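Consider the tokenized backbone below.
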């Protein structure tokens, strides 16, 4: 579906910037640098405040208040309560033109922080262990910088501060899908969207590639219903635990034997429940898991194969089964044409040796929903201090990104947004069939 984003939507100005040159003129580029320098301390303070006060998905009340207050002080058109705690702000440029967006996620994780930083989390059991505090601070920094060079902006910039990227609590809607449902890409219509994620590579380095860069993630639950019996009389029962074992093993063979090995996919069963006690043959077992795949082909193929394995194994032993499979997140797709158009901006700022290809990741990101609707550009921002040989992984209790990455992120985003406005003629909405 996403490949059907029409070329017209990506209409580029005649004569694209040659590699290494950006569309932002030298004077504006210098002004951006000065503004970043001027606001740097304040932005670091904001980041530390957010880090000290992490909030879970769909509960980003204080973060949202802080974001809205800052954006209002910059005189942007601010909307709060979007998709529960989301904040959306519009910066109208001094010159007419299309609208592009930057998205930042605001939620934290249920992890107890173990770092020894002075701005450690004050909320027990909660931590910004995925760097969303950095993402939010970068987007606020971009708003501060760009609102001071409004006159130079040929169009509008929409700032999307999104809740619940890590997933809404059970029985709640949330995240990017709900933001879109509530019209975040409309009024004015957003033509392209930018996002980033912190990544344990050196500060000053980014990773970017076009195409599918992060996996689609789906959820499934399998229930196997056999027949209970005395543990010593298996002939009188149908052992749901033995069937579950068979199913688990065969499902791994589906991935290794039926899927193209150069089109990666992962199937993980993360939860298993069944049986009552040691000497009773289990009547029922439930398996719960996730499937990750980069391509839509695999996302369609894998559930079909899984269902036939489950049915085949249970039926051959006289058991019954249910198979519940729910597509959850599409893969993050960097539009090839749009990506190639904007890549010179990254290279122009960081240098060719600091813009490295991005190996597709099997982790997921709900930025994918925006990139399904309009051309998206998502890159990984290095946050490891160059003096360190390694850094703690994302989602770990001692994750501690280098704050110097914030200024790098702001600069890249400012240039990407301005260049994309420069390079795009008025954007057409996607066709009705999209
Ligand atoms: Ni994250």
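A designed sequence for it:
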């Amino acid at each position: 579906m996403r490949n059907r984003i029409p070329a017209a939507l990506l209409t580029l100005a005649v004569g694209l910037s040659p590699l290494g040159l950006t569309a932002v003129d030298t004077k504006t580029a210098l002004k951006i640098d000065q503004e970043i320098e001027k606001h740097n301390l304040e932005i670091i303070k904001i980041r530390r405040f957010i880090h000290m006060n992490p909030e879970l998905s769909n509960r980003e009340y204080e973060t949202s208040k802080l974001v809205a207050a800052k954006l209002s002080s910059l005189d942007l058109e601010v909307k709060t309560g979007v998709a529960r705690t989301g904040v959306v702000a519009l910066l109208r440029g001094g010159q007419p033109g299309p609208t592009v967006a930057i998205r930042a996620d605001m939620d934290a994780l249920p992890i107890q922080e173990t770092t020894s930083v002075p701005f450690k989390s004050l909320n027990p059991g909660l931590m910004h262990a995925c760097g969303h505090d950095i993402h939010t601070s970068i987007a606020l920094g971009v708003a501060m910088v760009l609102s001071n060079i409004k006159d130079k902006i040929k169009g509008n910039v929409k700032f999307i501060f999104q809740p619940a990227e890590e997933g809404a609590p059970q029985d709640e809607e949330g995240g990017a899908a709900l933001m879109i449902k509530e019209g975040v890409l409309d009024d004015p219509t957003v033509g392209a969207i930018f996002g980033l994620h912190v990544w344990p590579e050196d500060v000053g380095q980014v990773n970017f590639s076009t195409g599918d860069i992060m996996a689609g993630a789906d959820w499934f639950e399998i229930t196997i219903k056999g027949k209970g019996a005395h543990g010593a009389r298996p002939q009188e029962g149908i052992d749901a635990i033995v069937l579950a074992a068979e199913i688990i093993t065969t499902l791994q063979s589906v991935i290794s034997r039926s899927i193209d090995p150069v089109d990666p996919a992962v199937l993980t069963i993360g939860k298993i429940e069944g049986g009552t006690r040691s000497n009773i043959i289990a009547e029922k077992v439930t398996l719960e898991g996730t499937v990750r795949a980069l391509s839509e082909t695999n996302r369609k193929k894998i559930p079909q194969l899984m269902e036939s394995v489950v049915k085949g194994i249970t039926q051959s032993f006289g058991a019954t089964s249910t198979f519940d499979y729910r597509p959850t997140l599409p893969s993050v797709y960097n539009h090839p044409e749009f990506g190639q158009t904007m890549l010179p901006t990254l290279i122009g700022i960081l240098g060719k040796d600091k813009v490295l290809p991005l190996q597709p990741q099997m982790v997921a990101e709900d930025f994918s929903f925006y990139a399904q609707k309009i051309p998206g550009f998502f890159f990984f921002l290095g946050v490891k201090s160059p003096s360190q040989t390694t850094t703690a992984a994302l989602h770990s209790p001692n994750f501690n990104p280098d704050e110097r990455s914030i200024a790098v992120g702001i600069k890249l985003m400012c240039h990407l947004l301005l260049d994309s406005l420069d390079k795009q003629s008025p954007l057409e909405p996607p066709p009705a069939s999209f």
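The first helix runs from residue 26 to 52.
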